[in-house]
Design brief:
- This protein is of the alpha/beta class.
- The protein contains six helices and 14 strands.
- It has a single domain, classed as Nucleotidyltransferase, domain 5 (2-Layer Sandwich), CATH 3.30.420.240.
- The strands form three sheets. Strands 1, 2, 3, 4, 7, 8, 9, 10, 11 and 12 form a ten-stranded mixed beta sheet that branches. It has a two-stranded antiparallel sheet with strand order 5-6. A two-stranded antiparallel ribbon has the order 13-14.
- Strand 3 and strand 4 form a beta hairpin.
- The longest helix is centred in the middle third of the chain and has 14 residues.
- The radius of gyration is 19 Å and the shape is globular.
Length: 236
């Protein structure tokens, strides 16, 4: 796939060599980064960032010029935690990390402590999707705001890990810390029937894992969908 061409906004296409027949079958893939932020509190509860590379590549099927896309692959390529005294420190930290990327989508937990960050990211001209975590098992997006149930948030990550669609980069500096958080997570049912996330052991907050889940759901459920039309097919 070394001959893939990366266009603006992370679009991936195969070269057509200006052949009209090839151009008519073109499928557009992507390579972009989903950045998730779990907003921490003071003291021993840090904020956490997780960056996931999302990629789907076009390829020739072997039937003439016909092209198809590989299933999306999600790779955790960066995690970091930070104890920030003020909300402005969180915004500065995030802005600094986003400035090192191209073709990114940013998702943060706008519940509770994250609520004031909506206006602060807007003032910093950061395109951000604020997610309010709810009970139940549904999700909804309206502009730059979304609601996602905790059940969906964590079950989505567990499923993608199980199927191999989501992997952790072998050279991730905080790989072991993230694995420890994933292994410490316990799921419990509340008296109201809601799924709750509990981290095992004192001092474990599963901050990186929470940020991972936010980044992932931003790609799998909340990403704006593009419609392609080619010979009356290609709608997704």
């Amino acid at each position: 796939m070394s001959d893939l061409i990366e266009l603006e906004h992370g679009a991936l296409v195969l070269p057509t060599n200006a052949d009209p027949a090839g151009a008519g079958h073109r499928r557009v893939g992507w390579r972009r980064f989903a950045v998730g932020l779990d907003v921490g509190g003071r003291g021993d509860d840090p904020s956490a960032l997780c960056i996931i590379k999302s990629e789907s590549r076009p390829f020739l099927t072997g039937r003439g010029w016909e092209q198809a896309l590989t299933p999306p692959q999600y790779s955790v390529v960066f995690t970091e935690t930070m104890r920030c005294a003020e909300a402005t420190d969180v915004v500065e930290w995030v802005v600094g990390r986003l400035g090192q990327l191209k073709n990114w989508r940013f998702i943060f937990d706008a519940s509770g402590l994250g609520a004031p960050l909506r206006s602060m990211f807007a003032a910093a001209k950061v395109q951000a999707l604020g997610v309010t975590i709810t009970a139940g098992s549904s999700f909804n997006r309206n502009g730059d705001a979304a609601t996602v149930s905790k059940a969906l948030l964590f079950e989505n990550a567990a499923t993608k890990f199980e199927t191999g669609e989501l992997i952790i980069a072998h050279d991730l500096p905080e790989r072991q810390e993230l694995l420890n958080e994933i292994q410490s997570v316990e799921y419990a049912q509340s008296s109201a029937g809601n799924l709750t996330l509990k981290a095992g052991g004192r001092g474990h907050h599963a901050d990186r894992f929470s940020a991972l889940c936010l980044a992932l759901v931003g790609e799998t459920h909340l990403a704006p969908q593009r419609m392609e039309v080619g010979k009356l097919r290609g709608y997704w």
